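Backbone-to-sequence.
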């Protein structure tokens, strides 16, 4: 089993995507609410939930053969 199939790649991608999204969400939350404390709370919550959802989404797609080439030995 390679690195991607063990889940390490999915986990790293989930964290990277989560951090990028959180910066965006925190900035928007700050603009909308005007509160740094509330924006930070929203950002932290968002990175956790988005990372978990993305991880499970990636793991599910590893089980789907759509678009993959199959090789027969």
């Amino acid at each position: 089993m390679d690195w991607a199939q063990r889940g390490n790649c999915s986990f790293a991608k989930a964290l990277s995507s989560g951090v990028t999204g959180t910066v965006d969400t925190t900035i928007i939350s700050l603009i909308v609410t005007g509160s740094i404390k509330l924006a930070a709370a929203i950002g932290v919550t968002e990175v956790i939930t988005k990372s978990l959802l993305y991880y499970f989404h990636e793991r599910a797609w590893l089980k789907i053969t759509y678009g993959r080439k199959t090789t027969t030995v």
